[in-house]
Known about the structure:
By secondary structure, the protein is of the alpha+beta class. It has helices spanning 37-50, 98-105, 125-128, 137-140, and strands at 2-7, 10-12, 17-23, 54-56, 64-71, 76-79, 82-84, 89-95, 111-118, 144-152. The strands form three sheets. Strands 1-9-10-4 form a four-stranded mixed beta sheet. A four-stranded antiparallel beta sheet has the order 2-3-8-5. It has a two-stranded antiparallel sheet with strand order 6-7. A hairpin with a 2-residue loop joins strand 6 (76-79) and strand 7. The protein is globular and about 40 Å long. 33% of the residues are buried.
Amino acid sequence: MAELTAPFVYKNDEKRIVYGPVLIPDEPDTDNDVVTAEKIESVAHKFVEEYGNIDLMHSLNNVGRLVESYILPVDLEVDEDTIVPKGSWVMGVRVTDDNAWQAVKDGKLGGFSIMALQKTAIKSAEKDNQESKRVTLADLGDDWIVNAVSLVDEPAVP
């Protein structure tokens, strides 16, 4: 299981909705994982069709509901310093949990983070016996899915 995060770019206080990129194509994250635009589109569509879980800090306790999900057809200029590139997966989430919404308003939660799993069979027992470490997308190979998106404090995507 791997995690990859991206920052919020807009929030609507009245509607309790946060918006931001979930995955950005061809841009290395803090683990140096890079995802193509084609893979982003594939995992984004699968997530909406089959999962839709919005949790807090990878707890698998849902704190929000997906209200928008799309792949940017063009670059999106948020402000002078922020451009979200074409091919990015952007999500809008209504935060339904009061404590999580307060954390967003207080700036304690600043973005989205994916939880990704291999689609194929779980790794062999040999891998299970290795030391526990943070798993990156590169560790999962090419055949992975996103089964949850989390509201997190420190997004890893630039």
